[in-house]
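Table S2 (text version). Query chain:
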Amino acid sequence: MSNVPVIMTKEKLINQAIGILGKSGHNISQRCNIRPRSFDIAAGNDDVLLLIKVLSNVDGLKENTALEMLQLAEYLSGTPLVIGEKSRDHPLESGVVYYRYGIPAINIDTLYDYFVEEVPPIVYAAPGGLYVNVDGHVLHEVRLKSNLSIGALASELGVSRRSISKYEEDDMDMSVDMVIRLEEMFNQAIALAIDFLNVDNKGLKNKPHPVETEPGISIKSILSSLDVDVVPISQAPFNAVSFEHTNSSKDISLPIILTGFSDYSGAMVKRAKLMSSISEVTKAQSMFIVNEHCKSKCVDNTVLLKKSDIQEMEDFDDLLTYLYEKVDKT
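Corresponding structure-token output:
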């Protein structure tokens, strides 16, 4: 029999991910079936919101897609996550976190271990190999208890004294082999779990925003009189995320509105249904601004408005009140 691993199709990966997340108590949106799409499903519970992209090969993630995932995650207070099967020609290893453009990527087994078995990964991949975050304080304590000097431990491991000092004082990351040797030597765990759901977005503000598409420009124009900030989105069922303008940094507690704009059509209704499903998981509002004729007031929980409806409003509060009233009547 061949030892070559069988690569799952994207369809099977998505279905397995949905099954795992459902088993672990997450609410899961309908699948995004539009192209291009920055994420395939949204999944959330009381503790975490995930925007998930499923790729057979994680190297297929494009930088502009990653940037939009990061931006959406920031505004929706969630975490972007890629679930994949391989990188280049090599399978992703279980219990290892990979990163693409700052977004964590894991295989389906790691997803199961984390959310069902509650076993977090401790290894991450970086140029040069696999590494582990270590607890330098624990290493320091067990070394002292074993009556080993820094020099003696360095000699035993074949590294410099400076390296041991950095491991203990700066929590410098180690290779997997080094961690295994130390844990066997002291019979003490020193590895730290990887909090891959806490994605660092510090550099996001310095990244270029996506080029504004025509729907996003139209939404900005229509909502301008209500003092609303509009962030264009190009790879989702909605064309923008909208929220009340503030002079301070963005307040994530402000209501977020997933916003679309188009003529009334069958395709628009399909998008509005998907927006409703996503808004329920992300705990956002959703609305579709319809150009001219509009046959209904809501599609599920997505409120349909005409431009003339908005022209009668004075501010963001009027808009929210309108949305809440229409949803309550459905």
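Notes on Table S2: The chain has eleven helices and 16 strands. The CA atoms of residues 215 and 261 lie 6 Å apart.
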